[in-house]
């Protein structure tokens, strides 16, 4: 079902103690108050279970930032979708550009991760987005379309309906450069149109699509007011409760 969502992506930040302090402060800040959007925090693996035990999971959903492309067994250092689910997390961020770029995650690997996440009842927050060279050559639509066609467009319609999408242009991530409201709206409308082409208009209208990349309290109100932008995937600005809360309040 289409929802407004503000999802934090802590990336590789915060010790366990710092992360617990951040999560509990957010939990307290949101207590006794109903945001106009779903709130999710994407913590490192080691925080998941402790955060899940300490916060109101009905108010704040918990996401892992990755899961293994294998079910279980001799894969030293990996964390499976089933393990993620067992912590109390409900979401998993998949296909983030940092994973694609620095950890060589291909569409093939992502398809295995998507299948395992879905089989374990996790909601994937599936990321796509182009690099600056691609944008400069005006190739962003074709690039993003290919990313989706190679992965989530291969899912059954029932599985596709369980996903949340996030468009994050790589040139806007952590750079302080946000896509302009027009660029973000244009791309999210394009993504919705190709979803409609693949799965039908009704499915497209029911898909939550987030924007990510230097989204902050200042630009969020204008971004979230766009017809196709259903929220944000927030990196840097999710690491301070006041900043993250201000983005939540942009809805
Ligand atoms: P940023 O990161 O908000 O720090 O740009 C967004 C993301 O990578 O999810």
Give an account of the 3D structure.
By secondary structure, this protein is of the alpha/beta class. It has one domain (5-248): Aldolase class I (TIM Barrel). It is 41% helix and 15% strand. The protein has 12 helices and 8 strands. It has helices spanning 16-30, 48-54, 81-86, 97-102, 107-119, 132-136, 140-149, 157-160, 181-199, 201-205, 220-224, 241-248, and strands at 5-9, 38-42, 60-64, 91-94, 123-128, 164-167, 208-212, 231-234. It has an 8-stranded parallel β-barrel, surrounded by 5 helices. Strand 3 (60-64), helix 3 (81-86) and strand 4 (91-94) form a beta-alpha-beta unit. Helix 7 runs parallel beside helix 9 (181-199). Bound molecules: 2-phosphoglycolic acid.
């Amino acid at each position: 079902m289409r929802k407004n969502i503000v999802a934090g992506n802590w990336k590789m930040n915060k010790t366990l103690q710092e992360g617990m302090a951040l999560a509990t402060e957010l939990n307290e800040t949101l207590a006794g108050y109903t945001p106009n959007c779903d709130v999710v925090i994407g913590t490192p693996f080691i925080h998941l279970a402790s955060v899940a035990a300490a916060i109101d999971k009905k108010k704040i959903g918990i996401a892992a930032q990755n899961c293994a492309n294998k079910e279980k067994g001799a894969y030293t250092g990996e964390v499976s979708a089933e393990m993620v689910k067992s912590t109390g997390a409900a979401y998993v961020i998949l296909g983030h550009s940092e994973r694609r770029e620095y950890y060589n995650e291909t569409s093939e690997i992502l398809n295995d991760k998507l299948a395992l996440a879905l089989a374990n009842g996790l909601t994937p927050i599936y990321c796509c987005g182009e690099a600056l060279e691609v944008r400069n050559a005006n190739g962003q639509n074709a690039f993003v379309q290919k990313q989706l066609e190679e992965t989530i467009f291969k899912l059954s319609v029932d599985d596709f309906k369980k996903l949340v999408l996030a468009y994050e242009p790589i040139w806007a991530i952590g750079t302080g450069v946000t896509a302009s409201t027009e660029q973000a709206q244009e791309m999210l409308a394009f993504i919705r149109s190709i979803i409609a082409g693949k799965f039908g208009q009704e499915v497209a209208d029911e898909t939550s699509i987030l924007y990510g990349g230097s989204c902050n309290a200042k630009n969020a109100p204008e971004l979230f007011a766009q017809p196709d932008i259903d929220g944000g995937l927030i990196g840097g600005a999710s690491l301070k409760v006041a900043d993250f809360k201000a983005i939540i309040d942009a809805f």
